[in-house]
Amino acid sequence: MKVVVCRLEDFPEGERKIVKAGPRSIGVFNVEGEFFAIRNRCPHQGGPLCIGRLSPWAVASGPGKVTMDGPPRLVACPWHGWEYDLETGQSFMGPGETRVKAYEVSVARGDTLEDVRQAEADVRVPAAARAAGREPGPYVAETFPVYVEEDYVVVEV
Amino acid sequence: MTVATATEAIDCDLHVAPAGVDTLLPYLDEYWRSYIDDATIRMGQAAYPMGAATTGAAPAGNHEELTAVLDETRPRRAILSCLALDGVHRNPHYGAAMATAINTWMRDEFLERDERLRASMVVSTLDIPAAVAEVERWDGDGRFAQVLLPVRNDIPYGNRYYHPLHAAAHERGLPIALHAWGRGGNAPTTTGVTTSYLEDYASNAHIAQTQMMSFVAEGVFSELPELKIVFLECGFSWLPPQLWRFDKDWKGVWREVPWVKERPSEYIRRHMRFTTEPAQLPQDPEQIAQVVAMVGPELLLYASDHPHEHGASSERLLASLGDEDAEAILRGNAAAFYGGSIA
Prior knowledge:
heterodimer, A: mainly beta, Rieske Iron-sulfur Protein, three-stranded antiparallel sheet, 10% helix, B: alpha/beta, TIM Barrel, eight-stranded parallel sheet, 41% helix, 13% strand
């Protein structure tokens, strides 16, 4: 199942969005231009993982000798601070810890996406008009198909 | 069930002490003899109130007294511990001179006279370069099995202040042994001085916990990956909840100590051991076995702690275990931990 998050241009670097996919809540992150999606539920005790802070790895060559390494791709659960890699959902706290479900994120043209085509159709014949029992008439003002031509951020659930 | 006997055990904590300061005077130069006289320094019995009527004897003060103890306990090996350097003095030069005197006295009085014996090398905590020099002084002797430090001290042992001493012990494969009690000038709690001996006595466990965490959190093992630590007379049944909590909190705040790359309990299980006497145990033998299973029998080393009498906890401990675990605690764990120095 594809879940359309938003238009690409509405999702700048450093931002995150929480989307619903049926009963699931999923956090989608734009980290330095790369998209990641991860289940918004910490496997520890069910905390809202995706509102936690993002950090790079802290790599120590010895006591007090620490460098930060890589993009900020570790999300820390706001409840207990447990961290998970956004790409794989993996934690690094020793064996036996479960990982978080991570999802594929892609960017797709709107005209390839059923949700977006439906949204486009809804623009032409709004659901409310149908519900009111009205049929489209012969007069149609000029419109411009903006969204269909654009790229969307899509999560594969 | 084992009918446990400590005979032929490796006893990791057997106390000796000079009967009085006079015993050590031949090992001190003229200045320190004069200093001791001027300051009226006396040897106390740290574990008992002065002059207390107790069934616990004084530690063996000479070879003859120790032989009587060994004839009774019949260990395969015994590692002597002398706590005479503990106390409230603040003079680092005195501490260094006394450390050399005590070690030399132990060699002459005991190690030279009974090949079953090994000793814990005492060093001053107030002058780390002097402590390193003391370790170096005994290079080649081979009969000092560990470096003895008081579990209660001035700065937690993971602090970089101690690094040169830990490095010297590491280089020689000598464990660092932390014994209960110690520098009594320091409060036994982080919140101040207690009013009773009862509180002071019971505090040895949480002081040991503080030291245990300090070694891990300050990254000692990331720089000295083979360093061994043994806690003498500090108990061990407190380990399961403390290790659980240490691991749990590390998971949340590991960024503060990124040199701690594994769960803290993994470092502790790899690097640290705990002696059996005294043990704070349940009454029910089945529950004792459960405690040992939670702690891990591989972490425990037998100690008589003679002459201190804490009760029959070691006997109850060994009696509640299977033969394999009892054997490991009496001999196997110590042989693996100390290696060649007690072979």
